[in-house]
Amino acid sequence: MCGFAGLIAKTSLEKEQFTKFIKSSELMNHRGPDYRGIFQEDNVLLIHYRLSILDLDKRSNQPFYSKSKNNICVYNGEIYNYKEIANKNQIETITTSDTEVMIETFEKNSFNAIKNWNGIFATAIYDRQKKQIHILRDRLGIKPLYIYENEDVLLFASEAKVILDWLESFEINYKGLSQYMWFGNTTGEQTMIENLIKLKPGTVNTYSTVDGACLNKKEYWSIKNDVKENNLSEAETIDEIKIRLEAAVSRQLISDVPIGVLLSGGIDSSSMVAFASKNYSSKIDTYTVSYDFNTNGKDELQNAKLIAQKFNTNHHELVVTSNNVKEIFCNLVFQYDEPFAEAASIPLYQISKLCAQDKKVILQGDGGDELFAGYRRYNVLNSFNFWKFTSNLYPLIPKKEWKERMRRMAFILNQNTDASIMAYYMSQDVPYKSPYQIFNKEIQVKLENQAWDEDYIKQADNFVNEDKVQKMLKTDGNILLPHTYLEKVDKATMINSIEARVPMLDNDLVDFAFSIPSRLKVKNNEKKYLLKKALEGIIPNQILYGPKNGFNTPISSWLKSDLYDFAKESFENNQNILLDKNKCLAILEAHKKNEKDYSFLLWKILVLNTWLSFYKNKFKLKSSIIL
Q: Reaction catalysed (predicted)?
């Protein structure tokens, strides 16, 4: 697992600019502290930072040349089935790394090769003969890749901070900002920076290295085009899930360094431990964390201990605190490249930092909820008419908190389109409490003109013939997974030089899971109905069917205590012209006095304001006013 960056000069570029880009790339040294490699030829610059996991020898350092020397790649990721691919393609390897297999199969089979790569990856492959560069990303966007383009350069990097550091200045993108204010992150290719995109998962972009022109954009896989509904029985489906999940975990145990498993005590992570302990060559290490900020007074330490004992793991219980929450907050705001308001990145960062003391690779359970209907909204959409009727009775509810929740649900379920239902469901905000209220009037007007729900409209069109549940599941696969949860996982772990693997999102398991009809997934009002059935007899029933004792990161209480003074100072010293300083301060005070819970809105503002402060000398509005 690694990080890479590249620069293609479209026009004549001073030598110092190439040197400056190399210097900027050091901001992602944490992605690959074991080795840095640089390739430069004419107007092409490739930089790679290596975290050595497969074939620790220097022969697998990058940039990596194909045997013919015609292709050179920089690559971030793992292809778990690389040995099978090498055998099938009769490739005689000189290393034991997946990098060699990846570049040789691409040279041999071009775009057709990518469909066979089962893994997590982003890569750039430079064809020296054709003077082209192919930039591509895995099917679900597990590994990040940013592309920036203007009239002078084409830039790409595993982390956008490399690009932002190199640029003299950059402009805000209002659509990206509007999405951030509704969801806490951007939801598609567009970022908050003009001309900077996230490469769409499952695609390859090909550029000329002569003039930087985009020659082709090819989608090699998508849920819409490559997944068809199956007609298996429930029993057959359950058996297939069990087989494919074990195969996925087993496949992802390849490594030349020790592997650990993050064990929360929940269903998904427990399944990782169950199948890893069965298929790993030695005793597996498991890591469970207890947080002093677990405000509901419960944790899953006992469940985790039960799983660790059942599968005889080397179990580690870690304790983390909120003592340095301000420092961690500021660090993570910078590391996430653009404003990102998923507060769960904080505890994940903390546990990965502790794991990094003796591990480079961890397995964890992300993806189970999206594949197997683990969220309450799927059950609500499955009983749409009932919940629509019930929520419309909210004026009769006496308890203020519940009345507000039901009012919001009534607003969502009374929307005229599935796109609007999904978009509002995935936001914690509603128009009658607009998240734009904290901006100055001029900015509010600009944001109100943005199609913030554009990506949900696209997904609704993609799955127009699907029922509401299936439409939500597949939309979550295309939006929620890559742009929220996988983004959270990658940045929070890689800052600590940890590779996080997600067996739930293995190609074969994903293909099958998205082919299952929703009537089998959502049943008896049981979350993850099929996954639980598949794990019966493997995972104890008290974990499968017992209460979930998870916690939410306590941003509400932090904004009244640990982060209150920091937030107040941040708003008071605000130097940009986006935010209404007085409005932000008023909301903070109202929250502290418990007049209303403004925690998520305040968190988004604080993240945004902190991020803007990092780039205050670079960031510009389109009116050229420096923030």
A: L-aspartate + L-glutamine + ATP + H2O = L-asparagine + L-glutamate + AMP + diphosphate + H(+)
